[in-house]
Design a protein that fits this description.
Number of domains: 4
Number of strands: 29
Largest sheet: 8 strands, antiparallel
Oligomer: single chain
Radius of gyration: 23 Å
Structural class: mainly beta
Length: 420
């Protein structure tokens, strides 16, 4: 199996700018432990917001080691990047940029909702930063494709990107491909310029063994010309492409060097299994990783995270993770689990526990959801939980004493039925 070419590590460039802050709400909004509390700002409150401005939220009185925030425009429900029930580990003011025109329109026409838990909101402001005076402004990352392109086992699927998307391409820029949903222990990619069919170095049906973002440098001037003339074709198999971007080259010394904190997760199981310990309420089963594949959890180590991705969760859904302890396999131990937007996650606290799970497997059980994927690997945050998949989270509302779930603009009752 061929080696991985490059697993991308993001590099951030900081620029000192002058900023104007306009307070649009002050008060005391307590966000309780259940996550049911929210602050709603009307369209008149956010009327001054403009593209590339920031929403600045000040939080105090954290009742735990972290709190969580989810900020969204409501027409349609569009989550502000960087929130999505993200963990906040320090009190203070946190800024989130409104850089997408659709998101801005959602806020200006529907207002803004700030959900959260385990802290108190005291102020919301709009921050406008003056653009730096620069005769040669920084090149920005260009999104070439975003969606879900499945690359099947036969290797006959491909994704074409037209030449007009590469107007800003220059030597040393990178094409960055995000892959998910590996259907085997590896997937393969091949990227080539349509003009002359020149293969991008580092691809050529290279095997990739973990999901993530892969960067391929376009260092040759002739290859730059070929791509700008005819665009590219991305071929592959056994995975899904969810995003392709063109990332500009950054001169050494222009930006701080990234810390060596890899964000690498390995998919060890995929499927679609209805999970339940109570078959009368919700027909389903449990998932025993040892029974499926004895070495599925092999290589698990201290500080790794185990992530169980799910879908179709009903009201009151629960997750239980258990492992077999001791010589008697009837002895079971339960793990506490942290809930995220599209997955449950658990951080392995010790080498002893990691070895027990690696040797004896893990049992995924609970009530009222479908398990679709298990990943293990190193987290990218100090909390021990990796960033959740970007998606529109469900929210709970109560009207006339009845509980409803709103997701992607559709209203469901507590049994999961659509309510018109």
């Amino acid at each position: 199996m061929k080696k991985i070419f490059t697993l991308l590590t993001a590099v951030a460039v900081s620029v000192s700018l002058l900023a104007t802050t306009t307070s649009i709400w002050k008060g005391t909004q307590v966000l309780g432990a259940e996550g049911n509390d929210a602050l709603t700002l009307q369209t008149t409150d956010v009327a001054a917001l403009a593209l590339n401005d920031y929403i600045a939220v000040t939080i105090t009185d954290m009742t735990d080691t972290y709190c969580q925030l989810n900020i969204a425009g409501t027409n349609p429900w569009t989550v502000v990047p960087g929130t999505n029930w993200s963990d906040i580990t320090e009190a203070g003011t946190h800024k989130y940029q409104i850089a997408d025109a659709d998101l801005l329109n959602s806020i200006l026409t529907g207002g803004l909702m700030i959900q959260g838990k385990l802290c108190t909101l005291t102020e919301v402001a709009i921050v406008t930063e003056d653009a730096p005076v620069d005769p040669q402004p920084e090149k920005e990352e260009v999104v070439l494709f975003e969606g879900a392109k499945v690359l099947g086992a036969a290797g006959e699927d491909n994704l074409g990107i037209t030449a007009d998307k590469f107007a800003s391409l220059a030597a040393k820029d990178s094409i960055v491909v995000t892959i998910t949903d590996m259907t085997d222990t590896y997937c393969q990619l091949n990227i080539a310029a349509n003009t002359g069919w020149v293969v991008v170095p580092g691809t050529n049906w290279e095997s990739l063994t973990v999901v993530g973002r892969y960067a391929y440098v376009i260092a040759d001037d002739d290859l730059v010309t070929a791509i700008k003339d005819g665009g590219i074709t991305i071929q592959g198999k056994l995975c899904t492409i969810t995003k392709v971007t063109l990332s500009p080259y950054v001169e050494p010394g222009d930006a701080p060097q990234p810390e060596d904190k890899p964000y690498v997760f390995t998919t060890v199981w995929t499927g679609d299994l209805a999970i339940s310990w109570n078959q009368e309420v919700y027909t389903g089963s449990t998932l025993d990783t040892y029974a499926v594949k004895q070495d599925m959890m092999a290589g698990l180590a201290k500080d790794d995270s185990i992530k169980v991705f799910y879908k179709d969760a009903i009201e009151g859904a629960q997750l239980r993770l258990q492992y077999k302890d001791g010589d008697n396999w009837d002895q079971w131990k339960e793990l506490s689990v942290s809930e995220q937007a599209e997955y449950f996650a658990y951080k392995v606290a010790s080498e002893e526990l990691a070895q027990l799970i690696a040797d004896r497997g893990l049992v995924v059980t609970g009530q009222g959801y479908h398990a679709i994927r298990i990943e293990i690997g190193k987290p990218d945050t100090s909390t021990g939980i990796g960033a959740a998949i970007t998606t529109t989270p469900a929210r709970k509302i109560i009207e006339n004493g009845q509980v409803f779930i709103i997701k992607d603009g559709i209203r469901y009752n507590i049994l999961g039925a659509v309510v018109r």
